[in-house]
Every structure is written in structure tokens, then in C-alpha cells.
Amino acid sequence: MMWLYQILDILSTITESICLMVFGICFCKEPRFRSPGYKWCISGVYFICVYAFTWYSELGAYKMPVFIIIGIVILKIFYKDSICQCIVAYEVQFLVVTVIPESIGALVFTLFLEEDLIVRVGSKYFARWESYFFMLAVRVLTVFVVYNICRKDRYQLMWKDTLILTIVFVSGFSIFMKNTFIQINLGTVSEISFYIVEVIFPLFFMILFLYVKNTLYLREQERKDKMQIAQLQKQFDYYRAKQKDEEKVRSVYHDMKNHLLILQQQINSPETAEIVEELQAQVAMYEDYVHTGNGILDIILKEKSELARDKQIALSVAVDFHGVDFIEPLDISTIFGNGLDNAIEASERLPVEQRTILVKTGKIHNFLSIVIQNNCTEESKPNKKRTTKGSDFLHGFGISNMQKAAGKYDGQLTTKCEKGKFVLKILIPIL
Question: Are residues 300 and 319 in contact, defined by beta-carbon separation less than 8 angstroms?
Fold first, then answer.
């Protein structure tokens, strides 16, 4: 029968090794090696170490702490992430892969099936062969659940978070070690109460882990929000400064124009005429200045028009913002600045003849309509129309900030790409 338990133990060790690789991927994000096979090296090295200590050492139950140290060291070797990430990754892996399946298996066999969990084969004690398959099923289920919970968001754990989790882990691990020592070294089964505690302990640990994870998520969101606010404020301050500069230039525009007209009548040489014409051309750009009814928006459209011109993009503007005084300047900067940046960025990827952008703004019934349209490729075409309410379709960076800006006024942002045209549309009710 020894051969059977050797095979079962090998299969169990293989699953543990694969699970270590899975949770390493789940918790750590900076691999030390770029080779595609490095992940399987994690499993291979761990399998060799665990198998050697299981069958060729006399540590008995005391091999468990050795496995923990080996697992953490292996993760640290293969990942550049902090030791905190590696410690918590292995703690979760050990609970999910070892503690939970073995504890539930022990409870089922001793409480419900009323059978002895431990059998003696030669000089060694093993769990019943039936329990291996039951524990494997529990292991696969718990790994699937925990992996899907943990893989979505990965944040850098701090020492404080790791210390709290590790204290709880060690407390429960000591109970698990006591039960394992009794089973492996004495060949008997502990009291049912110990197995119940073993099952409760991982649940408590995972609840605490999810709390820490949620705290880290909120902490990260707060940091991102502060960065976004700072970025938007910087952008707004820039347009404010540009507006003041433009006002200074425009204040002398009419005088310069009149002076050039007088100078043109008094010229005596072709060279002077050429210089006057060049100066008139430079000043004439202010005759094409977009007057929307909003000073900040005028500056934004002027700057983006110049940027589009430099990138050989045809930008058409039909914007009427007269009477729209309920939208804050910062939100105007967010909507039009980010919207046009996205459109320009998308247009740069197209051939020159297809680089066109259209900006239209006006009142439609009781709504303010803002439309930014540009050509798009078929690869960026979504399956269906999406809105900011539950939308996960992002066209460039800054769309979330635009969504928040529109949402402040109970507005709705929609995006769609049809027939090679990408259209971003915002509807804001006018009260």
C-alpha cells in the first residue's frame, strides 16, 4: 500500500506547487526573470523541496514551518516584490491549499462519516486514501474562489498590514501544527473542537485579509483622486494664465492693426511691403479667434486648434456657449481639454487625409449638447453603444474625469463608433 500513498502524496504535492505559482502570479507583479517558463520553475523548485523533506527527513510535523520558509524564499527569488507581498502570498496559499482542505476533510471523516481519518502504513501514518480525493476537490474549489477574489486588485502591502495578518496566521497555525503533530507523530485524531477551530481560523484570516485589501483599495483611490484633482487644477491654472496673456495681446491688437495699415500706405520698397504683409498675417490669426461666450473655452479651443494644425489635423469648431454660466471653469477645462486631447491622439494614428475632428456645442431644447467627433479605425469599434452608467469602454485617457464633470450637473456621457466615426456626446440638462 505504500506505493499508493506515495503516488497520492506526489499528486498532492504537485497541486500545492502549482497553487504556489498561481498565488505568486496573483499577489506579485514584478517577476525577476522574463523567461516564459519562470512560473513553472517556481512549481518545480517547490515540488522538489517539499518532496525531499516529506520522504527523506525525520522532521515529522515540524516540516510545516520549513515549507513556509521555503515557499516565501522561492517567491522572493522569482519576484522583485517586497517581502511583505511574498509573506502574505504564501500565508494565503498555505491556508487555502493546506489548512482548509485538511481541516474540512478531518471534520467530514470524523464527524459525519464516523471513520478513522488516520491509518498506519509500515512505520508511517497517513490520512485515508479516500480523504486525498476529497481534500483535492475542496482545494480546487477554494483556490478558484480565492484566486478570483484576490487577482482583481493588487496593492503594495505595508509592514503594518503584513504584521497584523501574520500574527493571526501564526495563532491559527499553532493549532493546526498541534493537530498535525498528533496525527503524524502519534497516529491519533484530535478532538472535534480543534478541527472546528481550524475551519473557523482561515475564515477569520480571509475576512481580515479582505478588510486590509479594502483599506488598501480606499487608500489607493484616495491617492489617485488627489493626483487627479491636482492634475486638473494644474491644467485649469494653465488655461487661466493663458487667458490673461491672450487678453494682454488682444488689448493691443486693434492699435497694431491700424498702425500696420498706415505703414502699408507709406511703404517705399518691396522689402518693406513684404515685412508688413508678414506682420499682418501674424496678427490676423486673432481675427479667426473663436468666440464661444466663455473665456476659458476660447483659450482651450485656440490652443487645441494650433496643436491640431501642427499635427496636420483638420479641426472644425461650431461652439456656442453664450448663457451657459452654470458650468464651472474647471469642469469646462476637464471636458473640452481631455476630449480634444483624446481626439487628437486618435487622429494621429490615421493617414493625414483622414485626420478630421468636429466640435459642436449648443442648446437643444432643455439640454446643452457637447459633441466631439473624430475618425476611428475598425479595431476600436465597440460591439454596442455604451454610456457612462456602467460603461467600461474607454476612448483614451481622461474619460473618467469627463464623466465625473458631466455627472456633477446630472449629465450623461455616451460614446459610440459607427461607420469609421467615433462620437463622444455629453447631454447636460439646463435648469
Answer: no
